[in-house]
Amino acid sequence: MSDVVKNTTDDSCPVFRSWNTWYILVIVVNILVVLTIYLYFNSL
Amino acid sequence: MNNIDWIVLFSTVTIIVGYGIWKTRGSKNIEGYLLGGNEAKWWTVGLSVMATQASAITFLSTPGQAYHDGMGFAQFYLMLPVAMIIICITFIPLYYKMKVYTAYEFLEGRFDLKTRSLTSFLFLVQRGLATGITIYAPAIILSSVLGWNLKMTTIATGVIAILYTVSGGTKAVHVTHRHQMTVILLSLFVIFFLLINNITETYSLKENLLIAKANEKLNVLNFEFDLSERYNIWTSMAAIFLFLSYFGTDQSQVQRYISGRSIRESRLGLIMNGMMKVPLQFFILFLGVLVFLFYQIHDAPIFFNQNVVEQVRASDYQSDFNNLEKTYTGLLADKKEAHASLISAHRSGNKTSYQEASQSIKSIRTQEKELRKNVRGLIEKADSTLETNDKDYVFISYILEHLPNGLIGLLLAVIFFAAMSSTSSELNALASTTTVDIYKRIINQQGSEEHYLKASKMLTLFWGVVAILFASFAALHENLIQFVNIIGSIFYGTILGIFLVAFYIKEVQARAVFIAGVIAQLLVICIYFADIVPYLWLNIIGAMAVIIMAVTIERISPHATKE
Questions:
Q1: Considering CB atoms only, which of A9, A26, A44 is closest to B96?
Q2: Given B362, B387, B412, which residue is the final one in a domain?
Q3: Which of A5, A15, B370, B388 is the most buried (most CB within 10 A)?
Q4: What is the rounded CA–CA span in Å between residue B256 and residue B34?
Q5: Is B187 inside a domain boundary?
Q6: Do B60 and B390 form a contact (C-beta atoms < 8 A)?
Q7: Is the domain of B161 the same as that of B15?
């Protein structure tokens, strides 16, 4: 049980320096997906 | 559906469920059973969160929604990534810090026992009802189109979900979710390529998209400020309250990510959901558009639920129905001609002819809508208890009538998996909340680990039986699906309001939030019965009422802060 408690506190951010970069990436990816689809369909 | 389909259906379900049971047998304590021993990696968390949200109705209804009304429904999910980020920043660290088994347990640490009990009770009421519908909704569609016995279909879906959820708890839910989602996603991709292959026999993909656009199926974003419109950019902003309640405070979702190996794995799991959900929703809706294009080549029936059509044909309205069908056949021929003119104008670059063909398609579409409205009216006249909405039957009709054998069995397995994945999460969450928040906390605090483990298993079984009984033996009809959504909207707002106060308004203490919660809940119920606003707005009203009243009560009450 104590091992599990130790493990669960790990909040180190993988790949980037801060979690904020991940959050910005989530927003950017979604904006890109929606805009690409929207603009492509509108351009038809 | 032939023997090959049955073999594929049975073997896929048996292998994945059997593997889930075998792999997760023998939990020795309540922590292993309810939190899966905190072993889940981020992709398991992410897939499990997605599998829990995606019920069978998601796969049956969403393509049908796009078939009839286009892709605008995707807007409903636009704020989901923002909700994921808020939960990653605020909710996850606090749940982990207090090492909770359930979301409601956190509220006792922040407020007191009665606030915890209030929210867990509200959750049990609304989720307990919803679980029955999660099983029932696909069963009624499958039994209708396949002629299966409704009760047997309901019981089979429920019993299989109970089997692996009781046996392996959270870990079994995670293991099966991972494989179920893999099969679901792969099958959807296979359908996608089959549809593309099929529709490009006559026109190119781009030409098909032009046809879809002329038929108003590709309207992705709607910027008009119209609150009566269910899906536009502005109403999608309101959906963030729903996502925060569902993902942040509904134990069926919270349990998926607090069982992650660490805060890091849980956050990455939700980030995965935030990245994938909107594209996945677009993808499923686009499948609906492709099905629409498919039915422009292979004539679509006037109404997809053939069971209902047969009942109308057997009624006094048979000749009226035949007349409408005749007019509809004429419209289909006109539409094919208009589509051919549109593509011909596109190929020749003639803008005037293109505009004319677009106008012609628009006019046919208006007539078609009117015709469908008349069909619905006729169905209602023939038998007012019949379901007049056929969008749930569009995709399943395509699967059964146009997919090769083998693939039909696989897609039916997908629908069962989707139903089971949501059901198992819900049973797991109902059992956790009843065990941890009610039984262990209030009724019996002296039990051993083994005792609580046994209690969790018994309560999973109990909720499973309740769900099956509710789905099988109550006099249900499809409007109950809406009824459960209404129940959810009535309770979600208050629960979210209490959590938002807990997270963000430190000055508010237990007494104020409890009183605010009870008054807000009564207020929401009154507003619902007064029928003042559409029920989806009850989420926001409930949450805002709790926040405003909790702050007010805290400020006007001199003793409250001393608690």
A1: A9
A2: B387
A3: B388
A4: 10
A5: yes
A6: no
A7: yes
Q: Which residues of A touch B94 (CB under 8 A)?
A: none
**Do B434 and B139 form a contact (C-beta atoms < 8 A)?**
no
Number of domains in chain B: 3
Chain A contact for B85 (CB, 8 A cutoff): yes
Instruction: Give domain status of residue B306, yes or no.
Output: no
CB B75 within 8 A of CB B224: no
What interface predicted TM-score (ipTM) does this complex get? 0.88
- Domain boundary (B442, B473, B504) is at B473
Residue B316: half-sphere exposure toward Cβ, Cα within 13 Å: 4
B181 and B95, same structural domain?
A: yes
User: Between helices B233-249 and B538-556, what is the axis angle to 10°?
Assistant: 70
Say how far apart CA A8 and CA A5 lie, in whole Å. 5
The answer to whether the CB atoms of A9 and B218 lie below 8 A apart is no
From the list B260, B271, B278, the residue facing A34 with the nearest CB is B278
Alpha helices in B200-232 (DSSP H): 205-214
Question: Is the CB of B96 less than 8 angstroms away from the CB of A30?
Answer: no
Contact B261 A7 (CB under 8 A): yes
Residue of B nearest to A12 (CA): B264
- In contact, B34 and B101? CB cutoff 8 Å: yes
**B33 occurs within a structural domain:** no
Q: Are residues B114 and B217 in the same domain?
A: yes
Among the partner-chain residues A10, A12, A30, the one whose CB lies closest to the CB of B278 is A30
Per-residue pLDDT of chain B (563 residues; tens, 9 = 90+): 788 989 998 898 888 888 888 887 777 778 888 887 788 899 999 999 998 888 887 888 889 989 988 998 888 899 999 999 999 999 999 999 888 889 999 999 889 999 999 999 999 988 888 888 888 888 888 887 788 888 888 888 889 889 888 888 888 888 888 888 888 889 999 999 999 999 998 899 999 999 999 999 998 888 887 766 667 788 788 788 888 988 999 999 999 999 888 999 999 999 999 999 999 999 999 999 999 999 998 888 989 888 888 888 888 888 898 999 999 999 999 999 999 999 999 999 888 999 999 999 999 999 999 999 999 998 988 888 787 888 888 998 899 889 999 999 988 888 888 888 888 888 989 999 999 899 988 888 888 888 988 899 999 999 999 999 888 776 555 555 567 677 888 898 999 999 999 999 999 999 999 999 999 999 999 999 888 887 778 888 999 999 999 999 999 887 644 44
Which structural domain range is residue B319 located in?
Answer: 313-387
B:487-516 residues touching chain A, CB 8 A cutoff: none
Interface probe with A: pick from B267, B284, B285, most Cβ of A within 10 Å = B267
Q: Are residues B237 and B174 in the same domain?
A: yes
The verdict on B279 touching A (C-beta cutoff 8 Å) is yes
